[in-house]
Specification:
With about 375 residues, this protein is of the alpha/beta class. The protein has 2 domains: about 190 residues, Rossmann fold (3-Layer(aba) Sandwich), CATH 3.40.50; about 160 residues, 3-Layer(aba) Sandwich (Rossmann fold), CATH 3.40.50.460. The chain is built from 10 helices and 15 strands. A 7-stranded mixed β-sheet has the order 3-2-1-6-7-14-15, sandwiched between helices. A 4-stranded parallel β-sheet has the order 9-10-8-13, with helices on both faces. A two-stranded antiparallel ribbon has the order 4-5. Strand 9, helix 6 and strand 10 form a beta-alpha-beta unit. Helix 1 packs across helix 8 and helix 4 crosses helix 5. It is elongated and about 70 Å long. It starts with a strand and ends in a 19-residue tail after the last helix. It binds 6-O-phosphono-beta-D-fructofuranose.
Length: about 375
């Protein structure tokens, strides 16, 4: 193998550039390979291709830099959705064009850095016989077969800092402050930041909530002389027998976009408790900017390990974090199911032990004694 390609796909996440840097340095320095960066995700492989050679000098200073120097897309021609967003089709002609272009460019294998959507596209290249190795990226941490994705820990720090800041203003004004965080259909960012940031209520997609229970928790805190409450809401949270709230329903080339649950809850809580309730949507602040130390380390480890895996002849695998070591797993295992929070997991239990409410209907079963 003489030339490999690098692709970054899906929503950006802190650490993408650190992966690129590590992959280039390992490929060129350790194995004497040529590295070609594909721009704007897989879209850069269609039509007039958009690619550029990456030399070690091109990745200098990239370790702390947010975003991706290659550009990325979380919509495009490699997945076509039905009008109702249900069925997904992967048009064979689009993939064949991309593979033909890769061959024309003498790229013999791809390191694909992405989340569930991007890695599912990568499995299609593998099925067509084009060698790929995946690197698990997403602030949502919802990829199976790896303990962590890079980007998550930085998003967690940002959400935790936001909760710390909301605490002081909520307390000064005796308000209920809600923080809506990202995470798609998984509650990892909300759960972890809620515990780290001392939230009173954590609402996640995996535990449907009752608005009355959330209002009850706010009122209980008043009785205990806490005139303010902090609530962290995952964008994919839903009420018991309710559904998620979307900002837009997407189209043939883009998925529906979640968002709006935080404002909805703030409005309802104001009505039910008589308290002033405000919502802050953290949004893309969770994805922008510099990766934290952990993500720089994990991304570097992943980027380097992905090139080593290709060099060993591994194909159709993803590098994965398992008990502090990097191993490889079939990409198919990583994208088969979303990794979501288990409602009976240890961290959920711990949160309940320290008085956090998840707004669940059976919440009373967990609170044996008042802890004012
Ligand atoms: O998957 C990462 C993510 O940030 C999700 O948490 C969020 O739902 C989505 O991407 C937002 O995407 P966009 O950048 O298109 O708004």
């Amino acid at each position: 193998m003489k030339t490999i390609g690098l692709v970054t796909g899906g929503g950006d996440a802190p650490g993408l550039n650190a992966v690129i840097r590590a992959a280039v340095k390992t490929a060129v320095g350790e194995y004497g390979l040529r590295v070609v960066g594909v721009e704007d995700s897989f879209e850069g492989l269609l039509g007039e291709t958009r690619v550029r050679e990456l030399m070690p000098a091109d990745v200098r200073g990239l370790l702390p830099r947010g975003g991706t120097i290659l550009g990325t897309r979380n919509r495009g021609r490699f997945v076509v959705r039905d009008a109702d967003g249900g069925h997904h089709r992967r048009p064979e002609d689009v993939y064949r064009e991309a593979v033909a272009n890769l061959e024309r460019l003498s790229i013999e294998a791809l390191v694909v850095i992405g989340g569930e959507g991007t890695l599912t596209i990568a499995t299609e290249f593998d099925r067509l016989g084009f060698p790929v190795v995946g690197v698990p990226k997403t602030i949502d941490n919802d990829l199976a077969a790896t303990e962590l994705t890079f980007g998550f820990m930085t998003a967690l720090d940002i959400a935790t800092e936001a909760l710390d800041r909301l605490h002081t203003t909520a307390e000064s004004h005796d308000r209920v402050m809600l923080l809506e965080v990202m995470g798609r259909h998984a509650g990892w960012i909300a759960l972890h930041s809620g515990v780290s940031g001392g939230a009173d209520v954590i609402l996640i997609p995996e535990i449907p909530f009752s608005m009355a229970k959330v209002a009850e928790k706010v009122s209980e805190r008043e009785k205990c002389d806490s005139q303010f409450s902090i609530i962290v809401v995952a964008e994919g949270a839903k009420e018991v027998e309710g559904s998620e709230v979307y900002q837009d329903m997407g189209d043939a080339q883009g998925s529906p976009r979640l968002g709006g649950m935080g404002h909805h809850i703030a409005h309802e809580l104001g009505r039910l408790t008589g308290k002033e309730a405000r919502c802050v949507v953290l949004g893309h602040l969770q994805r922008g900017g510099s990766p934290n130390a952990f993500d720089r380390m994990l991304a570097t480890n992943f980027g380097s390990a992905a090139v080593r895996a290709l060099q060993r002849g591994e194909r159709g695998v993803m590098v994965s974090l398992q008990a502090a070591n990097i191993r490889t797993v079939p990409i198919a295992d990583a994208v088969a199911n979303l990794k979501t929070v288990q409602p009976e997991s240890q961290l959920v239990r711990t949160a309940r032990d320290v008085g956090v409410s998840f707004g669940a209907l059976n919440e009373d079963d967990y609170h044996k004694h008042e802890i004012c």
